[in-house]
Amino acid sequence: MKRKLVILGNGMVGHRFAEKIAEYGGTEKFEVTILGEEPRRAYDRVHLSEYFTNRSADSLYLSPSDWYRTNGIRLLLSEPAISVDTVSRKVITSAGTELPFDELVLATGSSAFVPNFEGVDKQGVFVYRTIEDLEKIMSYAKQVSKVAVLGGGLLGLEAAKAVLDMGKESHVVEFASRLMPRQLDEAASSVLKSKIESLGVRIHLNKETKQALGDSSFQGLDFVDGSVLEVEMLIVSAGIRPRDELAKNSGIEVGQRGGILVDDELRTNVYGVYAIGEVALHKGMIYGLVAPGYEMAEILAYNLCSPGQKTKSYAGSDLSTKLKLIGVDVASFGDALGQTEHLPIAYTNPRTGVYKKLVLSADGKKLKGGILVGDADAYSNLLTLYLNNVELPDEPESLIVGTPSEEGSAFGSLPDDAKICSCNNVSKGDLLGAIRSGACSDLKGLKECTKSGTGCGGCIPQMNSILKEELRAQGKVVTEHVCEHFKYSRQELFQIAKVKGIRSFEEMIRTHGMGNGCEVCKPAVASIIASIYNEPIQKYREIQDTNDKYLANIQRGGTYSVVPRIPGGEITPDKLIVIGQIAKKYDLYCKITGGQRIDLLGAKMEQLPDIWKDLVEEGFESGHAYGKAMRTVKSCVGSTWCRYGVQDSTAFAIRIEERYRGIRAPHKLKSAVSGCIRECAEARGKDFGIIATEKGWNLYVGGNGGVNPKHAILLAADLDEETCVKYIDRFMMFYIRTADKLVRTSAWLEQLEGGIEYLKDVIINDRLGINKSLEEEMNNLVGTYVCEWKDVVDDPEKQKKYKHFINSEDSDPTVRFIEERGQKRPVDWPKKELVSN
Amino acid sequence: MNTTAKEPVWIPVSTVSEFPEDGGVCAKVYGEQIAIFHFSSRNEWFACENKCPHTGDMVLSRGMIGDSQGEPKVACPMHKKSFSLKTGACMSGEEYSIKTYPVHIEDGTVYIGIESPGTQG
């Protein structure tokens, strides 16, 4: 007969424990029952504040609705345990059910700690812990305009941001003299405070609450120092209290200040009863973070499922945290507050809002902890040094001041067993082994060989350092090679192609490369050749990236989307009707893009030439939405219609888009023109953006809204149109000539030594003496423009390439659509099996 | 080339001149979609199933071919996972793999070797 395993608590830790039991085959051995007090199954409480914006519990659930059933686990919701009989070994639930157990796991978590001041029970005071709490908060918030959050810790600041996002005046009240008092020192807190205040959240430190104001409903806080804060609602986030009452009443031993006492194997004083997560008190510590709870769940599940084998023990967890609070990087690890004998080194830059502190051992040789605010890039490196107890370089300050040089990095001194990738448990030795065996010589190869860096990706900077250090140690020159087929960077290949007049991939690889090429170097060379000679790219079809090869964007199901150019977003009613008619004719799904164009999705490959023919006949041309090329120029209506517009932004946007259409670059390029400083075209989120001033145009460069959103930086102000165009010519060609493959202008500008000042010197003052040639090259590209769709429409031979089968006129019979909101969309990809880690 | 226990049945698909150099096409062979690559820079031919094992989409013939450490491969156009054209193994460290087929050229005609035609449609 199976043993009976009962889990009390269906929070994140209780759920993880159940998952691990299932993973270790425990459901063969145990009849598992899990009890939850909330009406819904386990969800991600760490990302609770997302509920404020997306209002969807679905996206927070930790498992599909049938997970428990599929895994043979009985789940009882809205049914907490009310007592545990440790003698007859059974749990009694609120519904009166008696559940006998052989093993009992308490994962009851914690509740919000609510300070005991007068009036704390008034209407309008809430805690911040569950989805139900959030729903109450949102509903009550409708009638108020000012909200305070009690508690300046992680969760409190998160709640303050949610309040701000709801459009309310947001206050944070903290008892201590600083924010995040458990993780940050005074200096770090002060940097964080001014950052958060600049976003509009008001912070009140050193505030001990005496009583709540108001009659029946909450009207504000009255502090011990005599001051008063008038707000209409209070969210309490002042810490947690372990939910140990059940244990206490059942004779399970608890700590003096709460928490169920457990040993290194998570056992309580009662045989067969265990505690994990925020309710467990281990060596005097209660962990208010999910990661230690997960670690406990894993260890206990392992021990219960593998009797006779060596058990695992829990050694306590590291309290390191790194998070983005309201857009500010904050990280803290180890003995961040320097509570033992230590040597501190700190760096503060009030101008940029950056604070970094290292807590060194008294002899300065080891790292014991640290704090980073405003710039936490060094976090993963520092954490590795700390966790592995590595001896520091002679000048440890180099770790936080400026950019630590690769040569002087401390990774050479990391022991080989130092863990680098914690997601996949890869050590430095594993990485070195892979590099030394010759199996890989670049980051991509190293990822494939070792799996390191394929989880959260946090260790990639360290992998890079270790890789480069090892390659240097082997006497290899570390350069930015395009791939294994070319020992040159894109910039070098560009110069080679230009100087030697190379016009094909075949010639390039025969004269300067090796092997047969690949999906990395072929498109890179194709882009270089296109940027120099601007020939129709269908001439070199087989080296073009997928989308360029078919002049459309490949989408789910292997179908394509077609985006005609609509310069500046301006379109006549007749042309709008034509697009609608063509979409209807080919049954295409329509969507307005973020760049003021119309996306026509769901075209089968063999339909593409016909669709283009219809569009070209009506005066449309390719919008190059598929290429690493100049795409759209967004605009507002400017002085033509807008009561604020100071220049004709639409006309200028059209001129810009038509000038640069189809130009190939290392990455896609986008632009926008705004008619006044209100910036309705969002020009500063573009690779180059133009904003009208009373006197002319301001030109900004290096922005984008991609993975790492960046605002463009001012290159020159108050330009007339001709000068503005001239500067854009120079800027684009300089970028095309010198950027690495797939590097957008923002990253290119960041890597450019001397940054924007240097770029200004090149483009405005002609520091390199190349402006004439840049302009000539651009004029050549502009003068040789051909619509790539038309090139296919005019050539029956090229159209043949769009058949799905070489030996049949059929289309792909596997492409299937379903209807959604009145249009068709491709069916979903097959779902991957639920993989638990 | 794939080795199979039984001698395959050779199915003619098209003439060599219909194939792009260093590129791929898709052929319908007894109801199956097969991607065929004329790897002209190696003077070799390869064939594999057309289906991306990761998304299920019929797109591998549209992928770019190349080599890695001398091993001929095709990169799936959906997410750039590479597959060996010799063995069908995924070279991007994933567990997916694809079926490969032998190719035979005779008198300017391209033939695909299928084990037992008619049973796979």
From TrEMBL, chain A:
One of its GO terms (biological process) is energy derivation by oxidation of organic compounds. It comes from Leptospira neocaledonica. Residues 555-617 form the Nitrite/Sulfite reductase ferredoxin-like domain. Binds 1 siroheme per subunit. Keywords: 2Fe-2S, 4Fe-4S, FAD, Flavoprotein, Heme, Iron, Iron-sulfur, Metal-binding, Nitrate assimilation, Oxidoreductase. Residues 420-469 form the BFD-like [2Fe-2S]-binding domain. Siroheme binds at C680. This is Nitrite reductase (NAD(P)H).
UniProtKB/TrEMBL annotation, chain B:
One of its GO terms (molecular function) is nitrite reductase [NAD(P)H] activity. Pfam families: Rieske_2. InterPro entries: NasD-like (IPR052034), Rieske-like_NirD (IPR012748), Rieske_2Fe-2S (IPR017941), Rieske_2Fe-2S_sf (IPR036922). Transmembrane segments: none annotated. Residues 11-112 form the Rieske domain. The keyword Chloroplast does not apply. It comes from the Bacteria. One of its GO terms (biological process) is nitrate assimilation. Keywords: 2Fe-2S, Heme, Iron, Iron-sulfur, Metal-binding, Nitrate assimilation, Oxidoreductase. PANTHER family: NITRITE REDUCTASE (NADH) LARGE SUBUNIT. This is Nitrite reductase (NAD(P)H) small subunit. It comes from Leptospira neocaledonica. The lineage of its organism: Bacteria, Pseudomonadati, Spirochaetota, Spirochaetia, Leptospirales. The gene is nirD.
